[in-house]
């Protein structure tokens, strides 16, 4: 299937409009995930451009949207916290290289063996890690108690706007949250994106990260974690979309696309990412069935970065926190915690606990998967 498949005029219009809608919706999340890492907002935005383009060109099926995500951001945040921003490009580059190695060896097939309970634990742990990462933004600008109260008010209103928009209106939910955050937050004078960092309107420049044995050993745990966590979310989404549309998805090709996207993201010093579950579902729901939608999203983001960066700096942080609260709610597989299977609950909880204690989602999935298969070997009552 080619990059631009044959389409009639109606479908072309649907693809372009859906892609542009996705571009707008990607902005607040890309910024939020960049802030989680500790990077400048534009590094999340350009990561979304590179990842969306790679998935559009090389991905396992049409309709997928990639960008900066929580699954990879929370792991890279650990790298930046311990070693500083200097090693972020190398960490993302190595993560992409590992994904390409996984593709070349066919090791991506192992992900088919990850049990559903471990995936559920992965999603809950990811949601909790995103939630915990938001607290520090309440203190930006050292606000008074009244200032914190006003910030929390805007956070709540933005979250409610995003939730209601996803249920009742056609406006992109994240955009609705940001609009409410701006309308209410700007007059109140609460902290904005610009208080944390300026948003550059320039194209990122390519740079080859310094590589030596010591640096490789420093980034390897984080890069491996990012590679695995990104593929878990990406291949899970391929399965979900393929099931919804009753069409085959190629997980091998998507693994390759993720590797290429992260290698390029690392070379341009951005934060990388993987397939976005929410934005992909939004794209499919809008009627997009081809790769043109992801290409349109990437081009739309480029226009936004180059011409609207001053507006991005004016976005209140509270609006972004509101967006992340709904992302937390929608990401976590909360109903899985009510399972009546003792073994599945043990797998879920062990995955969550290992992920949170190690700050590494990939390690959590490995622990949960090991417990599942040990239980299966012991002939306990388990369900894949």
Explain this structure to me?
- The protein is mainly α and 384 residues long.
- The chain has helices at residues 9-37, 41-58, 70-83, 88-105, 116-133, 145-168, 173-188, 193-196, 213-245, 251-267, 277-285, 292-307, 309-313, 317-331, 342-358, 361-377; strands at residues 66-67, 274-275.
- Strands 1-2 form a two-stranded antiparallel sheet.
- The protein has one domain (9-333).
- It has 16 helices and two strands.
Please outline what is shown here.
The protein has 384 residues and is mainly alpha-helical. The protein has helices spanning 9-37, 41-58, 70-83, 88-105, 116-133, 145-168, 173-188, 193-196, 213-245, 251-267, 277-285, 292-307, 309-313, 317-331, 342-358, 361-377, and strands spanning 66-67, 274-275.
Coarse morphology: globular
Order of helices and strands: HHEHHHHHHHHEHHHHHH
Q: How many separate helices?
A: 16
Sequence stretches where pLDDT stays below 50 over 5 or more residues:
none
Overview features:
384 residues; mainly alpha; two-stranded antiparallel sheet
Write the layout of secondary structure elements.
Blueprint: H1 9-37, H2 41-58, E1 66-67, H3 70-83, H4 88-105, H5 116-133, H6 145-168, H7 173-188, H8 193-196, H9 213-245, H10 251-267, E2 274-275, H11 277-285, H12 292-307, H13 309-313, H14 317-331, H15 342-358, H16 361-377
